[in-house]
């Protein structure tokens, strides 16, 4: 790469020399006018004629010094020079002129274009060598043009990459700033929003305790409404905080036995299932890969939901099983026979604080499925649901399985 | 105010102070509390400087410390306390609104004896404060040099 660049520089340098020489000439004649295409053609062919003229002059000099044999070489040099600097066609002209001049001035009979038998061999040799020199010039020019083109392409690409890098760095900086802002926001919410909520709840409670004997039923009801609202706001703030923490928490991924995890979660939510008739069916679940505490939260949310939304069923059926899916992901589903939901709301299902049921029929803040989605997405997986009203719901969780932890 | 108390409550929010004292009052511990409104006042009390110049010698049996405080925050107070030969043994319990893991980690790294997130629910809050007060001011045996039990 480096040597190629050097070669390019050499070529460029050489060309610059010629160009600057040509430019100086044109400056002298045209007083600073730019070198036009016509000028360039004149200069190139001028070089051909000039080099042959110079070769003729040198030839006479050589002839006088009894170096008759070198005249032939001098003309070849003129062709080589023209081929190198001016290109193929001027070199052809230089060759033609050179041959004529060599014949006219240096091959007996002198000052005539006729040739003696013993000198005739010079001309095919001159033609052959000139042809080789011209061909070499053409090849050199072509290679140079190719190299220059690659260099330009490379330069353009480097420039493009540099611009992209700058853009990327800017974006990443913006993103980091946004992230910091968000973090500061969440922190401030955690610190500042929780305190007033606690105060409202606390002082209302104190008021209730102290003033209870003198209050009428309506006032007592209103106080209990304040307390309920404060408590709900507290839950919302806490849920929102927990949700924002998921995005910021460091994940520590290991292999996880989902079957064990699901069973542990079912044990955990047992207090909520007391007095209920629930038929749990747990199929064979795959070994998965992820952050244990986050994935536990996923199944805790989904299984709690299944328990919650089957509350109206005399006999709840909750099935947890896996799909035989593509080998690059493990798909687990949780199917219940609860109240389900209308599929036209399926896009709203995973939104933050989105609820499809009234607070009276099913309590909750609407953060559970948003949390589920956020965690699954952080694991590079997918989550979706199928349901119909009063006919149960099925939630699918697809987690990617890295090849190395298969089985 | 200048007396020697078993519990040093460092809390800037008067409402939180009132609620905390309400909680402690249920075990008659409210009179055992001295309140510092910011980090600097907490250190003034501990070093017997400024308003607390005249208080008798001795350390509180526990310091309940909020993290977000005016002037010096909880961490800064904690750092100074843990760096001082005479104060480093004082049991310190963080009493804060912050759930943040980094606050938790930083607190424990600085050597706190407990970390309590103020519950939003009033009953749980009062219970938490009561239990803290009873444990640290009554049940726990404080390090030598602390205020004696009544």
Describe the structure.
The complex is a heterodimer of chains A (407) and B (150). With 407 residues, chain A is of the alpha+beta class. Chain A has helices spanning 2-30, 37-64, 70-86, 88-106, 122-211, 217-248, 258-268, 292-309, 368-378; strands spanning 254-257, 278-282, 287-290, 316-323, 329-336, 382-387, 393-400. The longest helix of chain A is centred in the middle third of the chain and has 90 residues, at 122-211. The two termini of chain A are 47 Å apart. Helix content of chain A is 63%, strand content 11%. Chain B is globular, with a radius of gyration of 14 Å. A 5-stranded parallel sheet of chain B has the order 2-1-3-4-5, with helices on both faces. Chain A binds chain B through residues 187, 190-192, 194-195, 197-199, 201-206, 230-231, 234-235, 237-238, 241, 245, 249, and chain B through 13, 15-16, 19, 22, 68, 96-101, 118-123, 125-126.
Radius of gyration of chain A: 45 Å
Briefly note the structural class of the backbone of chain B: alpha/beta
Terminal CA distance of chain A: 47 Å
Number of helices of chain A: 9
User: Which stretches of chain A are poorly predicted, pLDDT < 50 over at least 5 residues?
Assistant: 1-30
Uncertain segments of chain B are none
What's the order of the H and E elements of chain B?
EHEHEHEHEH
**Strand order, biggest sheet of chain B?**
2-1-3-4-5
Task: Please state the oligomeric state of the protein chains shown.
Answer: heterodimer
How are the SSEs ordered, and which strands pair?
The complex is a heterodimer of chains A (407) and B (150).
Chain A: H1 2-30, H2 37-64, H3 70-86, H4 88-106, H5 122-211, H6 217-248, E1 254-257, H7 258-268, E2 278-282, E3 287-290, H8 292-309, E4 316-323, E5 329-336, H9 368-378, E6 382-387, E7 393-400
Parallel strand pairs in A: 2-4
Antiparallel strand pairs in A: 1-3, 4-5, 5-7, 6-7
Helix pairs in contact in A: 1-5, 2-3, 2-4, 3-4, 3-5, 4-5, 5-6, 7-8, 8-9
Chain B: E1 7-10, H1 14-25, E2 33-36, H2 39-47, E3 62-65, H3 74-83, E4 92-96, H4 101-109, E5 114-117, H5 122-139
Parallel strand pairs in B: 1-2, 1-3, 3-4, 4-5
């Amino acid at each position: 790469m480096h040597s190629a660049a050097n070669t390019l520089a050499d070529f460029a340098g050489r060309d610059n020399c010629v160009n600057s020489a040509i430019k100086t000439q044109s400056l002298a004649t045209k007083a600073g006018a730019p070198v036009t295409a016509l000028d360039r053609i004149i200069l190139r062919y001028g070089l051909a004629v000039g080099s042959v003229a110079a070769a003729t002059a040198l030839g006479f000099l050589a002839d006088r010094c009894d170096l008759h044999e070198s005249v032939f070489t001098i003309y070849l040099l003129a062709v080589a020079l023209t081929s190198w600097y001016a290109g193929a066609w001027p070199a052809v002209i230089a060759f033609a002129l050179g041959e004529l001049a060599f014949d006219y001035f240096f091959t007996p009979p002198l000052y005539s274009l006729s040739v003696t038998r013993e000198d005739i061999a010079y001309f095919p040799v001159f033609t052959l060598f000139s042809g080789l020199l011209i061909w070499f010039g053409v090849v050199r020019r072509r290679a140079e043009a190719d190299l220059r083109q690659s260099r330009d392409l490379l330069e353009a690409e480097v420039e493009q990459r540099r611009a992209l890098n700058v853009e990327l760095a800017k974006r990443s900086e913006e993103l980091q700033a946004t992230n910091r802002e968000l973090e500061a926001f969440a922190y401030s919410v955690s610190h500042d929003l929780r305190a007033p909520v606690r105060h409202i709840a606390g002082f209302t409670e104190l008021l209730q305790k102290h003033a209870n004997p003198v209050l009428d039923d309506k006032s007592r009801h209103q106080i209990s409404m304040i307390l309920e609202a404060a408590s709900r706001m507290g839950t919302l703030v806490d849920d929102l905080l927990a949700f924002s923490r998921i995005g910021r928490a460091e994940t520590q991924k290991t292999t996880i036995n989902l079957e064990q995890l699901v069973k542990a979660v079912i044990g955990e939510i047992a207090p909520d299932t007391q007095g209920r008739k629930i038929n749990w069916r747990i199929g064979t679940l795959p070994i998965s890969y992820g952050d244990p505490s986050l994935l536990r939260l996923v199944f805790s949310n989904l299984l709690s939901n299944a328990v919650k939304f089957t509350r109206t069923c005399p006999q709840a059926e909750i099935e947890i099983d896996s799909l035989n899916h593509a080998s690059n992901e493990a798909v687990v589903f949780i199917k219940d026979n609860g109240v389900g939901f209308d599929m036209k709301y399926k896009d709203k299902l995973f939104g933050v604080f989105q609820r499809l049921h009234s607070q009276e029929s099913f309590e909750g803040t609407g953060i559970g499925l948003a949390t589920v989605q956020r965690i699954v997405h952080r694991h590079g997986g997918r989550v979706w649901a199928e349901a119909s009203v009063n006919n149960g719901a099925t939630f699918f969780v697809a987690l990617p399985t890295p090849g190395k932890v298969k089985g | 105010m200048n007396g020697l108390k078993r519990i040093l409550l460092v809390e800037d929010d008067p409402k939180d102070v009132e609620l905390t004292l309400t909680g402690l009052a249920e075990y008659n511990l409210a009179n055992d509390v001295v309140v510092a409104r910011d980090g600097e006042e907490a250190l003034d009390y501990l070093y017997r400087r400024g308003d607390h110049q005249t208080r008798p010698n001795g350390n509180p049996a526990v310091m309940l410390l909020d993290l977000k405080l005016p002037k010096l925050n909880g961490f800064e107070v904690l750092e100074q306390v843990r760096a001082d030969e005479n104060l480093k043994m004082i049991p310190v319990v963080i009493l804060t609104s912050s759930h943040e893991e980094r606050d938790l980690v930083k607190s424990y790294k600085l050597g706190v004896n407990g970390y309590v997130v103020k519950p939003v629910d009033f009953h749980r809050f009062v219970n938490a404060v009561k239990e803290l007060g009873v444990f640290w001011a009554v049940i726990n045996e404080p390090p030598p040099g602390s205020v004696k039990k009544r």
